[in-house]
């Protein structure tokens, strides 16, 4: 039973670390990256639809992206959705067939803003990890009557080590993203 609680907590923490890495990928660096538009929702016939389901996204050059919609009638909606993305600072253009997005050069001040944004996202994900730890600890405490206190103590130490390892993984991803953002 203790092993089940720890295994479930570990699996949830793994998913939380992956979500943090994906979230960090949505913050732009100096290069154009299709992952920047991973979470963009386009109002497609009244339904919020992920951009990746409506179009293919290619990066022909270091600072530009070409978005080719599968349905040409969605061009205006795609262009508007990209324009509405916060913290991106791009102005898409469409030529009737594709949407072209040129990424502006990042200033040092803008890079520092992005570092603050990434740190904030990292802290949010660490709070989520601690929430998972708290729930697992509550589940362990519920087993108190069935298992001994020594086993419970060892399980809590394992849980703490598991949490620490996952927080360190988020910190490592955060450091890599910060270095990538500050790289000129």
From TrEMBL:
Coiled coil regions, renumbered to chain: 145-172
Native organism taxonomy: Bacteria, Bacillati, Actinomycetota, Actinomycetes, Micrococcales
Family (UniProt): Belongs to the RRF family.
HAMAP family in the record: RRF
Residue span, Ribosome recycling factor domain: 21-182
Top-level taxon: Bacteria
Cited CDD domains: RRF
Protein name: Ribosome-recycling factor
Record function comment: Responsible for the release of ribosomes from messenger RNA at the termination of protein biosynthesis. May increase the efficiency of translation by recycling ribosomes from one round of translation to another.
One protein family per Pfam: RRF
UniProtKB keywords: Coiled coil, Cytoplasm, Protein biosynthesis
Keyword Cell inner membrane: no
Gene3D superfamilies (alphabetical): 3.30.1360.40, Ribosome-recycling factor
Keyword Cytoplasm: yes
Compartmental location: Cytoplasm
């Amino acid at each position: 039973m203790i092993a089940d609680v720890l295994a479930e907590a570990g699996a949830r923490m793994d998913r939380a670390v992956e979500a943090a890495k994906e979230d960090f990928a949505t913050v732009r660096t100096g290069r154009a990256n299709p992952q920047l538009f991973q979470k963009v929702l386009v109002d497609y016939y009244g339904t919020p639809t992920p951009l990746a389901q409506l179009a293919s996204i290619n990066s022909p050059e270091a600072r530009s992206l070409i978005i080719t919609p599968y349905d040409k009638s969605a061009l205006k909606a795609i262009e508007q959705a990209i324009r509405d993305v916060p913290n991106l600072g791009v102005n898409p253009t469409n030529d009737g067939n594709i949407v072209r997005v040129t990424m502006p050069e990042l200033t040092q001040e803008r890079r520092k803003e992005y570092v603050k944004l990434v740190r904030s996202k990292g802290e949010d994900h660490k709070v989520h990890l601690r929430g998972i730890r708290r729930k697992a600890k509550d589940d362990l405490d519920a087993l108190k009557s069935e298992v001994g206190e020594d086993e419970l103590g060892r399980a809590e130490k394992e849980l703490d080590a598991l949490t620490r390892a996952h927080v360190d993984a988020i910190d490592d991803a955060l450091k890599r993203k910060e270095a990538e953002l500050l790289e000129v």
